[in-house]
Amino acid sequence: MTTYLLRSVAPLGGEPVDVLLADGVVAAIGPDAGARAGEATVVEGEGLVLLPGLVDLHTHLREPGREDAETIRSGTRAAAAGGFTAVHAMANTTPTQDTAGVVEQVWRLGRDAGWADVHPVGAVSVGLAGEHLAELGAMASSAARVRVFSDDGKCVHDPVLMRRALEYVKAFDGVIAQHAQEPRLTDGAQMHEGVVSSEIGLAGWPAVAEEAIIARDVLLAEHVGSRLHVCHLSTAGSVEIIRWAKSRGIDVTAEVTPHHLVLTDELARGYDPVFKVNPPLRTAEDVEAVRAGLADGTIDIVATDHAPHTREDKDCEWAAAAFGMTGLETALAVVQETMVDTGRLTWADVARVLSAAPAAIGRVEGQGRPIAVGEPGNLVLVDPSARRTVEPAEQATASGNSPFRGRELPGRVVATFLRGRATVLNGVLQDDADGSRRAAGRGVGA
Ligand SMILES: NC(=O)N[C@@H](CC(=O)O)C(=O)O
Ligand SMILES: [Zn+2]
Ligand SMILES: [Zn+2]
């Protein structure tokens, strides 16, 4: 196994030091690292920030069932390119990830691909139909060790089913990740309900459809004494409810997506379905509220909700298009632009919201760890001074539905290490050496 000497890198944006990666772990930090480097491959790290490998709690890999949009391999290559060393693969596949057999298959395909650890999310209900609980216990005790359960794409709207799920997962320290969308209030909805939806004539998805479910679920979580996680929170009112729930001591965590940190419903005016997503892009006031919530810790993590879709499902009229946008390869850049470059989060905070906290919520071992001697070599090296223009054709994801296409974003992933092995080096995915390699992000000097 190759040994790497990361020379003069800044862990969590702090003072530059040398870091030695050997035998899959952080073997030395500081003057000792150079002395023990021997034949190590040297990575010049001047000006680069070293973070723990990123952990995504919310990824759609589409395999099994929609391999035309993404496969476990293409999706985890995109993850590596974006600096991730672990992803949670959502359950809305075909067949649904609602049995031990299916989650084990997804887990095994992820392990065999080798680009990032894949932790399958188990469905809450059989077939995501919202009627009968899936075999949560069997998925938890399977080889995939499932701890996160979600019907994402659909809301667990029946309060009795939600209550039973919350009670059931307590036995194995699981968590229910809720896609908060009251279906009766969003029938036929196409975008955020507000000024823009009424001006352009698209059916609205009101903020209250999200907030009503979150309010109900934090109360249910309190009642049964269980753990709740709220997926892709998107409104100012949702931030207020989570803040209130935490102040009462309710065991709830929440995520925001990169796109909800920066994009607004104004983008729907062009009727480009690349901006069609669930929950919908909201208003500038909501964007400010989710940034403030992330900055003050009300929102625990950033999760991508990477949702690849084929051209047929996206390049059509707005009403017919699928909901969702890709995000693994732009997440860190968007967080840098909206939160770090604006002074609202430090790099140490970024390590928390994109690595340590999602690993803790998912009960993932060996990820999201401090950068310290003896810890697994799951790391990402970032150049915050680079700039790049997002080009879907240069991305590793098999789908082209990035809402940031053509947009310039800061930062570049220079290297990603999975247990000491480089999955990305010098901005290039490490699968072949024939010049046809795709850059992991076009940046200065890439
Ligand atoms: N976010 C989306 O708009 N779409 C997701 C489902 C989901 O996250 O709800 C998908 O699977 O495509
Ligand atoms: Zn969802
Ligand atoms: Zn999702």
Number of contiguous helices:
12
Low-confidence stretches: 433-446
Please state the second-level CATH architecture of the largest domain.
Answer: Alpha-Beta Barrel
Fraction of helical residues:
25-40%
Can you identify the CATH superfamily of the largest domain?
Metal-dependent hydrolases
What is the CATH class name of the largest domain? Alpha Beta
Largest beta-sheet characterization: 9 strands, mixed
Kindly report how far apart the N and C termini lie.
25 Å
By secondary-structure content and strand pairing, the structural class works out as alpha/beta
Strand residue percentage: 15-25%
**Overall average residue pLDDT:** 96
Say which molecules are bound, naming each kind only once.
N-carbamoyl-L-aspartate, zinc ion
Based on DSSP secondary structure assignment, what is the total number of beta strands?
Answer: 19
Based on CA atoms alone, the radius of gyration comes out at 21 Å
Catalytic activity: (S)-dihydroorotate + H2O = N-carbamoyl-L-aspartate + H(+)
GO cellular component, one term: cytoplasm
GO biological process, one term: purine nucleobase catabolic process
Protein name: Dihydroorotase
